[in-house]
């Protein structure tokens, strides 16, 4: 986390619904419903509850998240951390005892091909075509029958 003097704090008794946008770091100790976007780090405290889609540079979870999480750099799920939703991150760190219910897409190209509702067959074909080592000689197609 960044220096605490530049951190926005959602206090334990706070309940916020809507879209939150942070330029720096943020610490959620209370409850947030909706969408969270942070250009810095986001830390969900062990008392924090997020029913939200999250997009941040780095995400550290000690509490609970229900929603999709995109971490441009690093996602850290500590022992008490719970996530129910899809994770997209360049790096993922999970501690023993942590819980994930959802799809996980990790690696330097993780955010380039998105699963779920944002999935595009053309993106998957392009990604597969760029990796001939995975299926040498395979031919890619985007016909509706092939996608099913």
List its traits.
11 strands; 148 residues; eleven-stranded parallel β-sheet; mainly beta; 9% helix; 2 helices; single chain
Radius of gyration: 17 Å
Strand content: over 45%
What's the pLDDT, averaged over the residues? Answer: 82
Domain module count: 2
Described by the principal axes of the CA atoms, the overall outline is globular
The helix/strand series, from N terminus to C terminus, equals EEEEEEEEEEEHH
- Describe the oligomeric state of these chains in a short phrase: single chain
Structural class: mainly beta
Q: For the terminal residues, how far apart are their CA atoms?
A: 42 Å
Low-confidence region ranges: 114-123, 135-148
Number of distinct helices: 2
Strand element count: 11
Please estimate the helix content.
under 10%
Reported for the largest beta sheet, the result is:
11 strands, parallel
Q: Your description of this structure?
A:
This protein is mainly β and 148 residues long. The chain folds into 2 domains: 4-111, no CATH class; 112-148, no CATH class. The protein has 2 helices and 11 strands. The protein has helices at 121-129, 144-147; strands spanning 7-10, 15-22, 25-28, 31-44, 49-61, 64-66, 69-77, 82-84, 87-94, 99-101, 104-106.
Short synopsis of the structure:
By secondary structure, the chain is mainly beta. The chain has helices at residues 121-129, 144-147; strands at 7-10, 15-22, 25-28, 31-44, 49-61, 64-66, 69-77, 82-84, 87-94, 99-101, 104-106. The protein has 2 helices and 11 strands.
Write the layout of secondary structure elements.
Elements lengths: L6 E4 L4 E8 L2 E4 L2 E14 L4 E13 L2 E3 L2 E9 L4 E3 L2 E8 L4 E3 L2 E3 L14 H9 L14 H4 L1
Parallel strand pairs: 1-3, 2-4, 3-4, 4-5, 5-6, 5-7, 6-8, 7-9, 8-10, 9-11
């Amino acid at each position: 986390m960044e220096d605490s003097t530049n951190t926005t704090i959602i206090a334990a008794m706070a309940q916020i619904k809507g879209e939150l946008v942070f330029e720096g770091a943020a610490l959620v100790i209370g409850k947030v419903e909706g969408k969270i976007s942070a250009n810095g780090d986001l830390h969900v405290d062990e008392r924090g509850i997020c029913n939200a889609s999250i997009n941040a540079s780095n995400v550290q979870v000690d509490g609970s998240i229900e929603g999709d999480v995109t971490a441009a750099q690093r996602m850290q799920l500590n022992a008490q951390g719970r996530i129910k939703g899809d994770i997209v991150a360049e790096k993922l760190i999970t501690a023993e005892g942590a819980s994930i219910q959802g799809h996980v897409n990790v690696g330097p190209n993780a955010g380039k091909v998105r699963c779920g509702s944002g999935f595009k067959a053309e993106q998957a074909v392009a990604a597969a075509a760029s990796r001939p080592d995975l299926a040498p000689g395979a031919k890619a197609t985007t016909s509706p029958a092939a996608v099913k």
